[in-house]
Amino acid sequence: MSRRTITELARALRAREVSSRELAAVALARIEAADGELNSFISVEPAMALAAADRADQQLARGEGGPLTGIPFAHKDIFCTAGVKTTCGSKMLAGFIPPYDATVVSRLAEAGIVMVGKTNMDEFAMGSSNETSFFGPVRNPWDPHRSPGGSSGGSAAAVAAGLVPAATGTDTGGSIRQPAALTGITGLKPTYGRVSRYGMVAFASSLDQAGVLTLSAEDAALLLGAMAGFDPRDSTSADLPVPDYAAQLGSAVAGKRIGLPKEFFDAGLEPASATAVREALRIYERLGAKLVEISLPSLALSVPTYYIVAPAECSSNLSRFDGVRFGYRHEGAQTLEELYKKSRGHGFGAEVKRRILTGTYVLSAGYYDAYYLKAQKARQLIADDFRRCFADVDIIAGPTAPTPAFRLGEKVDDPVQMYLNDIYTIAVNLAGLPGLSIPCGFSAGLPVGLQLIGPHFGEGPLLNFAHVYQRETDWHTRLPPGAAVGAPSGAINGGIAPEGAPTGAPTGKPR
Amino acid sequence: MSWETVIGLEIHAQLATRSKIFSGAATAYGAEPNTQACLVDLGYPGVLPVLNAEVVRMAVKFGLAIGASIAPRSIFARKNYFYPDLPKGYQISQYELPIVHDGRLGIELEDGSSTSVHIIRAHLEEDAGKSLHENFAGLTAIDLNRAGTPLIEIVSAPDMRSAREAVAYMKKIHQLVRYLGICDGNMQEGSFRCDANVSVRRTGTDQLGTRTETKNLNSFRFLERAIHYEVERQIEVLESGGKIIQETRLYDPDRDETRSMRSKEEANDYRYFPDPDLLPVLIGADFIAQVQAEMPELPEAKRARFVAEHGLGTADAALLAASIELAAWFEAVVMAAPGSAKLAANWINGELMAALNRDGLAIEASRISPAQLAGLLRRIMDDTISGKLAKQVFELLWSEGGDADTIIDKQGLRQITDSGAIEAVIDKVLAANPGQVAEYRAGKTKVIGFLVGQIMKASAGKANPAQVNELLKRKLQG
Predict the structure, then answer these.
(1) Residue B181 needs a FRET pair 20 to 30 A away by CA distance; which of A260, B284, B419, B433 works?
(2) What is the reported pTM?
C-alpha cells in the first residue's frame, strides 16, 4: 500500500520504524516526481518542511508529541502562512507573502504537523473544477483529462495521489466535499464556526469554513480535534468545548435514523452514482440503522440563493485588493481610478470578476431588497428545512455530486452548468451544517462520493457514521492508477515502504 | 416673506478608548505615520475584526445620558466604497439597527431661552486613515494610524432653527461627551467634528427645503460661519428663482465660504449590508444597569447641586459646571477649605480664569493647584490677609509656586489686627489732616473715605479695614 493514513504513519513514527524527516523527504520526492503532471501544488517548501520534520523527530525522540507530530501535510493556498507565499490561486496575490499564520496553520503546527507546501485551488476559492486558478488546472489522479473538482482541487489531488496523507481545504459551497468525492477521498466540512476563519483569505464570510481532505474519517477526526475551537481573533468562531473526536469513533449505528432527502435522488443524479450511493446506504441498513425518506422542499432555492449571498459578500471582501497596499499593482496607471481599474482588471480572473459584478449588483440601491434580502429569507427557509428534518433523523445522507469527475474544459465556459455541480452541497453551507464526503464506489472507473450531513456541531456522530462505513468497506483504500509515483523506496525503512511499485505518470496524455 | 433656517447635525465624536474599535492597536494621537496600524487596520487578507467591548459601554453611556433607547440587538454593516485611506474598501459602521436611538437633549441659548433637540440615532463606526496630499510632490501619502479609531456618530433631527442653536447644541454634546469621559473633545486633532445639514424654507411652511450637507466642521466658529454662509447662499439662489441642489459641500475657513464637493448623482452607492464577520451586539438590562451605576453626575444635576449645596448663584454654578474638570477643581478647593464655596467660586471664575486665559492654559494645566488656592482662601477667611493683598499672593503662587502662608510671611502681607498698632496709624493720619477732621466733625461725614484711604496707605494696605473703620469713627466722634 503506497498511501498511508495519518493513523498508520503516527504508529510507525512512534515505533521508530520511520522518521519524520524520512516521511517529509518521501512527500517531497513524490511531489517532485508527480506534480509536474498533477499541478496540485502552487509552492513547495523543502527546507522549511525538513526543519519542521527534524523538530518533530526530536520531540518524538523525547517521547513527546501527539498523533499529528511529524506527519507531512499540505495547506490549501488560501491559508496565510508567515513567510510563505499565499496566492489564493490568483495573479492578484501571486507574490504575496503574509507576515502571519492563519489560526488553522498555527494550531496544526503546534500539533507537530510538517507542512511541505501549499496546494492549488480555484482563484479565491471561486470554482468547482480548479480551472479558475491563475496557476493552471489541477488534474485528477484517476484520469488526468478530468478535473479533481474544486475549489480545493489541489489538496484533493495531492491526497488522492499519495503525495501527502492529508491537507486542509475550505468549503464555501462544497469546495471540500465535491473534490473529495471526485478524487475518491474523505473530505470534512465542519459546522460554520467550529474552526477559526482567521487567516483564511475570505471569499464569502458567512459560508466559508475550513476543513480537511484525508484518506479516512479517523484521520479527519484527528485533524479536526487539533484545528477546532474558539479563536478570540474570529468573532464568528464558536465558544464551545472541542470533543476528542478520534476517541469517540467506533460506536454502533444500530437504531440510528438516516434521512434520505428525496430531492437528492432526482433526475439530475447520474444513474451509476445513484447506484453506488444506494449500495452504501444498504451497508448502514445492514448495521442496523433505519433509512427514512425526508424532504427538503426549499432545496431548489439553494443554488440561486447561494449565487446571491456568496457574490454579495465576495464583492465586498475582495475590495481590499486595490493595488494600494499589497498584492498586484498595475504599473501603468496615471490616476487613482486607473490604478483601481487596471490593478483589479488585470489582477482578477474572469470567474472572480463575474462574481464581484454579480455581488455588486445585488447589493445596489434599488436591488438590495429584491435580491440580497430575499436570498436571506430563502436561506432561512433552507435552514428551517434541515432543522425540521433533524428533529426526526440523526443524520442525512445522499450523493455529494450529481456526476463523477467531469472532463477539464467541459463546463468551464458554462457557469450555470458548473454551479449546478454543487447542487447537493451548497444547502449545507447556507444552513451552516457539518458535512462530509466519503468514497462509496465507482462510476465507469471514477470515484463516487457519499455525502453525510449532521446537525450543528454534530461532527462527532458524523465522523462516526463515516468511520463505521470505512470499517465495513475498502473504497477509501482504492488507489488511483498513478498514486504515489516515484516514491524512492530506499528512503523508507521497514513496513512503511510503498509496496505497490510506482506505476509511473498518470495514464493518458493530458490535453 | 421671510425665510426659516432648518439645521440638523451629524456629530462624529472619537471614543476615548486605548485601542481601536476592531483591533488591539493603540489609538494615541500624533504617532509616527503608520506605526499604530496592525494587520487588521491594514485590511490584510484573512484578518477579521473583533469588537472592543469598551466601545459598546461608551455608546450605552451616551445613550443613557440623552435618555435614548438602547437597542437590545444592533448590527454592524459594511459601507462599501473605494478610497486609498480606507484599507478594506469598506467602512464598518451601523446602518439599519444602530446601538442608540431616539434621545433628546435640552439646550439653552445665551439670551436665556431654551429648546430641545431630538437625537434620532447614535451609531458606532470605525474612522478611516488620512490621505496626505502635501509635501509629497504630486504623490499622495497614506497614514493609517487613524484607521479603525472608534467613532460615535450622533445624528440629530432637523430641529435647529439658527446657527446659534446649532452651535449651542454642538457645545452641549461636546460638554456631555467630555463629562461622560467617552471623548476628549479635542477639535484641533479631529476628535470632535460635525457635518451640518442646512436648508431654508418660507416661514410658516411645513415642508422641508432641499438640504446641503457641509462636511467636517471642526470648530464651533466654523460651524457658525458655514451655516451663515450656506443660509445666505441658499436664500439668494431661491430668491433669484433658482433651485437648491442636494449635494455635499466643504467649508473653506480661509475664504469663509462653502464649496460644492459632489452632487447627489455623483454620490457613492454604498451597498450597505450586515457585516458577516461580526455578530449582532446584544445588550441586556443587566449591562445597562451596570453602566447606569457608573454614570457620572451630569451638568444640570451638578449645577443644581452647586446652588443647593454650596449656595452659589446660578451664573457662578453654571460657569463652574461647564466642564467636569473645572467642577472637580472647584469641589477640591471647597473640600480643602470648608465653608469657602462662594469665595472659591469668585476666585475661580475671576482670578483663576483670567490667569488661565492669559497664559492660554486649560484647567488641567493650571499653574496653581486647588490645595494652593484653598490655602489662600483660608487666610482670607481667617482675616490673616485682606482680599486685596490676596491677589498679590495669588499672582506669586501662579508665577513662583509655594504656599500662601509662606508668601504672606515672606512678603510681610499679614493683616494688622492689633488695635493698638492700628490706632497709632490713625492718630498719625488724623494729626496730618486736621482740615478733613474738622470737615467730618462739621457734618461732612463723606470725608471719612479719604481718611480710611490714607490710613490704609500708611499701613501698606495691611490694616484690617473693618477695624480701621470702627476705630476711626470712634476717634472722630470721640
Answers:
(1) B284
(2) 0.89
